[in-house]
Amino acid sequence: MLITNITIYTMNDQDEIIENGYIYTENGKIADVGSMENLPQHNTESKDMNGARVYPGFIDAHTHLGIFGDSVGMEDTDGNEDSDPITPQLSVIDAVNTNNRYFAEALREGITTVIVSPGSTNPIAGQIAAVKTFDSTGGEPRIDNMIIKSPAAIKFALGENPKSTYNDKDQMPVTRMAVAAMIREMLEKARRYERQKYFYEKDSKTYDEPEYDQKCEALLPLMKREIPAHFHAHTSGDIYTALRIAKEFNIRAVIVHATEGHKMYEDLIRETEGVLSGPIMTDRSKPELRGHIAASAAMMSEQGVPLALITDHPEIPVNYLTVCAAIAVRYHMDRYEALKAITINPAKICGIADRVGSIETGKDADLVIYEGDPLDITHAPLGRMINGCLM
Question: How far, CA to CA in Å, does 50 sit from each of 26, 347, 382, 390?
């Protein structure tokens, strides 16, 4: 398909905006991007958008989409396996309900990719996945057809959530000390398991193969630095614990929420791969949120912290991602940086920038089309595209 007469916000590393351009898509990918004056001949369906603005499909970098149903009870609630505090072997894709209506509502608002994470009751909760919000193959939506990357990260949680969950069960962990200790114990087991496998693969005559351990196996991509740890942490103390653990085990760290991150931006720049900030539209509903200020994301962004804005769906419904970005601008985040925080920044932080996040040749043809400004909440998308399917 050829889309013409558009203003293209590429969100590429050059921050290029093509004032009067075209995008040609083929086989679900962006095959060509450029200025209308250089438009080559394409024997394909063409759509003239009469000056509309085109952005990369929006990305919500932290959600629980499809694992918490709405208007139902526990039968459609699969976000927290709180029978065991250490569960790295759980894969979120086995719980995602692709018929959850918020997938369609997300797509309607131009959100084409979501990072779906297990919930935050466990110190180690499981494997995170990056998925599309639409199955472009047609038919009954199947999560296998929607995956961009799985696992994309391992979910960790510090502070209040694990404490309160297991205090109610009268079992460990009920203190921050115990949460951190249990994480360390599991990471040390995984480190030893990795070494044993390495030596066995190098010399199977001298070394024994370690007994299969599902939890350790799940942590191997983390220990090899192939994927990061996403640490749920609100307070500065919990963030520092996350950074300390990451340094001890040489793992890559991303901080989720970072409610008090504006107090420690230099440490975040130096010791993390980024912050998934939000939800900005929330109240101070629990002790960890006492330090919440709506300007936190803007303050971190201004200081150069790699940052994405999130809804934490269903905490804030996923379809309000652009509203969250607009509120960040209201509190003095640069408007273009706010757009980056829902496009290329989350793609980079979550390790999927080779597929999505910017409008560049070779990337997935995931686009959102606006007549006006996406950060004006009175404007809705004119169209959306996932894998070259225009809707």
Answer: 22, 29, 12, 16
Q: Backbone phi, then psi, for 368, in 5-degree steps?
A: -135, 135
38, with CB counted inside 10 A (0-12, 13-18, 19+), is exposed
Q: What is the CA radius of gyration of the chain?
A: 21
> What's the half-sphere exposure (Cβ side, CA atoms, 13 Å) at 382?
15
For the chain, report the end-to-end CA distance as a whole number of angstroms.
Answer: 12
Question: Which two tokens mark 99?
Answer: 């018929």
Cα separation, 135 vs 85, in Å, equals: 33
pLDDT at position 74 is 72
Say how far apart CA 213 and CA 354 lie, in whole Å: 32
Which residue has 């809804």 as its token pair?
A: 311
d(Cα 58, Cα 358) in Å, to the nearest integer? 10
Listing from the earlier edge strand, what are the strands of the sheet with 29-35?
A: 29-35, 17-26, 2-9, 46-56, 367-370, 383-386, 389-390
Could you give the CA distance from residue 309 to residue 9 in angstroms, rounded to a whole number? 18
Give me the pLDDT at residue 285, please.
87
**289, burial (CB in 10 Å: exposed 0-12, middle 13-18, buried 19+):** middle
Spatial neighbors of 164 by CB under 8 A, at least 6 apart, are: none
Using alpha carbons only, give the angle 171, 174, 177 rounded to the nearest 5 degrees. Answer: 125
Looking at residue 43, its pLDDT comes to: 82
- Low-confidence stretches of the chain (pLDDT beneath 50): none
Looking at the DSSP bridge assignments, the partners of residue 124 are 86, 156
The strand pairing partners of 55, in sequence order, are: 368
Answer whether 225's CB lies under 8 Å from 213's CB: no
**Pick from 37, 60, 49, 45: nearest CA to 7:** 49
* Residues 56, 358 contacting (CB under 8 angstroms): yes
Looking at residue 120, what DSSP letter applies?
A: S
pLDDT at residue 76, rounded to an integer: 78
- CB-CB contact of 157 with 62 (8 Å): no
pLDDT tens digits for 314-339?
999 999 999 999 999 999 999 999 99
Cα 113 from Cα 367, distance rounded (Å): 11
> What residues contact residue 190 under an 8 Å CB cut-off, 6+ apart?
215, 216, 219, 220, 222, 223
Quote the CA–CA distance of 310 and 111 in Å, as a whole number.
Answer: 12
Q: CA dihedral defined by 134, 135, 136, 140, rounded to 10 degrees?
A: -130
